[in-house]
Amino acid sequence: MEEKAATEARNHARLAIMELANMISVPMSLNAIVRLNVPDAIWQGGSNTPLSASEILARVLPTGGDAENLQRILRMLTSYGVFAEHLCSDGSGDRKYSLTVVGQTLVTDNDGLSYAPYVLQHHQEALMRAWSLVHEAVVDPTTEPFVKANGEAAYGYYLKQPEMNGLMLKAMSGVSVPFMKAMLDGYNGFEGVQRLVDVGGSAGDCLRMILQKYPSVREGINFDLPEVVAKAPEIPGVIHVGGDMFKFIPQGDAIFMKWILTTWTDEECQKIMENCYKALPARGKLIACEPVLPEQSDESHRTRALLEGDIFVMTIYRAKGKHRTEEQFRRIGLSAGFPHFRAFPVDHFYTLLEFLK
Ligand SMILES: C[S@@+](CC[C@H](N)C(=O)[O-])C[C@H]1O[C@@H](n2cnc3c(N)ncnc32)[C@H](O)[C@@H]1O
Question: Domain spanning 116-120+169-356 has what CATH number?
Answer without folding.
Answer: 3.40.50.150
